[in-house]
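Supplementary notes for students who missed Thursday's class. We covered one full example, reproduced here. Read the sequence, then the structure, then the short commentary at the end.
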Amino acid sequence: TIATFWNRRSFSLMVEVEEASLTAPSGEDDVPCDAIQFAIAPRSSEGGSADRYEFLVIPKGEGQGECRLLAGPDDESNDGSTATDWQACPTVDAEVVVARTDRGTTVYELSLSFRDMPLIRPSEGREFYFSLLVHDDDDPTGPRDWGVASGLSDSERSWDGWKRWNGD
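Structure (token representation):
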């Protein structure tokens, strides 16, 4: 389940993931963990560049989580060929909760200020692009792509567009 809300100040996201267990980062660089990864971009992009912001939300203990900026509009290394050390990426000042439920799901909730995304200017009727990956350590098929679930064709989405990170 995915829910979004935004106003002129912040973008809020709730993702509920059905998974066997919640795997937090172990501290070792290449050990897989659970997370959500999302991208948000202005509806119109000048000059054809990838003016998007890509974030990673990681669990940090019961009820806690953190949000990292994996890539921004000025990031030229966003070709997906090498994994980024997510721990070296800047932490974003966001309100984050990651909690396990008794229904066998994990709920990720966050509120992120648009000040951290200056290219996106929210106002009434303004549209922007959004996409999401769910990383589930217990799922051998790899990340779950919201684009697939929402019916986008292969030509409308690309794995090469996502920033790879150690632990995914």
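Commentary. The two ends are 21 Å apart (CA to CA). The mean pLDDT is 79. If anything here is unclear, bring it to office hours.
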